Amino acid sequence: MTIQEFLEQFSILENHLFSLAPDFNKRQGLFNLLKHLKNNNKIDDGLLKDLLLITQTRNKIVSTPTLGKDISDDMLDKITKVKAELNM
Amino acid sequence: MPKEQIPTDNPNENKELSPQEIREKLKDPSYLPTHREIDRTFKSKDFISREWSDFCFDEQNPVFEFLNEEFLNAFSDYLSQRAKELGASEEAPITVLEVGAGNGRLTYFLQKKLEERLPGQVKVVASDSGKWGIKTAFPVDVIEHKEALKKYKPKIVVFSWMPYGEDYTADMRAETSVEEYVLIGEADGGCCGNEWETWGSSYGNDEEVPPYKADGFERSDLEELSSQQICRTDQPGQGYYHSSTVSFERKVPK
């Protein structure tokens, strides 16, 4: 999976998560959104753990000056699993 | 009338630039685009357009925060107000230190705009460790952040896009001259700084006092400034909300 594909998948996932809480101020960030969704029982502990892992991977990528090339296929599996659990 | 059009006697000066013309102008680091110009130039229906990521993740000149006229004006208004409150004068100008300044572009524009607002009363200094080898476009003191804090004794420190997982704010709070530090970037578990040490936000630490609070600082999210921001993790055409500006002000004297 290329980094560009990963970031695109992440954006789709992020948009979907924000759509689960339409009144949430997006500027508070994904991390606070995940807390909000968990507190409102929209996601469970297992899903939260996977989403945090995906988010941390994304954070590492976008905080470096340039984009690398590829990312492990494990991450693609993780995204596929999370999307299925979210009925996306 | 679009925001970037300023009425003049010369009809050519009122002409709205095409996206291609703006792209050309953006090659000049001293050109500060408007929010609308960036939006028009890079707008896409894609979640992450190739053109946007190529521009922001450029090896020679990576862009983290996409500086624009509106944000710089709002930030300069804020800093000039704070400088006045902190007693800035021509006889005793205050120093604003930018740490992790990269190519020095943010400091360059801030100094220019603060000079218009408070002539001779605020000195803005850019510093960077030089570890990322970013090509400097403007004057930058290549020096570690701790040394820079000791050397310049700033009243205000600015850090745009603190490296992910790292925290430099404890060192800022430890420097007695520092009355406030302003962080720009993805806050609270985003891709800047350390979610707990820097922002005081984390799972499982709800009962604990955040480090900034323990050190006598108060956090304020500067919504007016944040609403003008554009950053590399936004996608023009899809909304701008990833990056924000947050102030931490000393409330308990050290």
UniProtKB/TrEMBL annotation, chain A:
What is the name listed in the Swiss-Prot or TrEMBL entry for this protein?
A: Uncharacterized protein
The lineage is: Bacteria, Candidatus Yanofskyibacteriota
From TrEMBL, chain B:
Feature: compositional bias, Basic and acidic residues: 12-32
What InterPro entries does the record point to? SAM-dependent_MTases_sf
Q: Where is the composition biased (Polar residues)?
A: 233-247
Q: Which SUPFAM superfamilies match?
A: S-adenosyl-L-methionine-dependent methyltransferases
What residues form the membrane-spanning segments?
none
Q: Which domain of life is it from?
A: Bacteria
Region span, Disordered: 1-32, 233-254
Q: What is this protein called?
A: Histidine-specific methyltransferase SAM-dependent domain-containing protein
The organism encoding this protein is Candidatus Yanofskybacteria bacterium RIFCSPLOWO2_01_FULL_44_22
Organism lineage string? Bacteria, Candidatus Yanofskyibacteriota
